[in-house]
Amino acid sequence: MEEKLLSQLDAQQRVDQIHAFQQELHALEIDQVIAVSPAQKNKLDDYHQQLLKRLSESYDVDTSSQSKQLSLGMRIASMLGALAMATSIFFLFYQFWGYLSTAVQVSILVIAPISLFILSLKLAQAEKSAYYSKIAALVSLACFVLNLSMLGQIFNITPSPNAFAVWAAFSFLLAYACNARLLLFFGIVSLSSFIAMKMGSWSGMYWISFGERPENFLVPSLLIFLIPHLSDHRRFNGFAAIYKVMAMIMLFLPILVLSNWGEISYLSWSAEIIEGCYQLMGFALSAAAIWLGVKRQWGEVTNTGNVFFILFLYTKFFDWWWEWMPKYVFFFILGLSALLALMVFKRVRLSNLNDLSKVGKMGGGAGQ
Length: 368
Hints:
Layout: H1 8-30, H2 38-59, H3 65-96, H4 102-126, H5 131-154, H6 162-178, H7 181-202, H8 218-230, H9 239-258, H10 271-296, H11 299-321, H12 327-367
């Protein structure tokens, strides 16, 4: 059976592909471009119905627009429920914490995350969509974060960035076990913060001041971007896109900050030179991201590159013209620049369509 090799995302794409095919076939029949005999149509419909049934049973995919809308509502409810439960645990701990003995406190801090971790694994195995397991997993992570924080206070342990490495490891473990993108986000943030803190410490600053040097995030951004290319992530819905978008945000935000405040850089050059270098780097890297996203068909990379290219451009416009130019002229120029960008993208899109058309003609000629 072909669908046994699919991920849930692949199965959902196959379902969408079937619906698109049925709609296009219906449109072609109305326009009298193609005529399918009743026998062929019945055979095709039977095949699609059986395939949709198998995909729905195996992967719990949405086979209609109504079920898609309900699934979106369930995902939103699951996320809000998980955040509310985690917040409830946090306030519960702080409300009654002072009335408990040290032994009871330590027992709760150790047992709560472990029991919830086991519960999330059991639920992930039992259900296909993992709604309840994601709630248990996020509450388990909240308990684990409180665990390290509270144990440090009870036993007067010196705070260190190593806690972020442990939180990152636990977040990644839960994210991959429950296929939970929100936990992956927490894992990426914790891992990036840990690396940035370590780099800050190695450069001589106190680890909690790592944010004062935005360049501390450049190395984590590169590592995060490479992770989805080191192993196959097709079984995990949206994980590769989250890695890429988070890595690009961690790359472009420090560059954007340094392109305006060069004095907080590690470099010993003058602030003007540093800002100029980072401005050029920002334009070059965001344009390269757009090119790479279009070439590899990574929509999230293209969109993120677009956003930051426009941010870099508008930041320069603000620096050059905001102080002396009339505001209506300033915003008129912004509008003209948006139209110019629209024309460029339209030209690139038309070029791609022409390339696809040439490929199609070559394929048709070869087929003849």
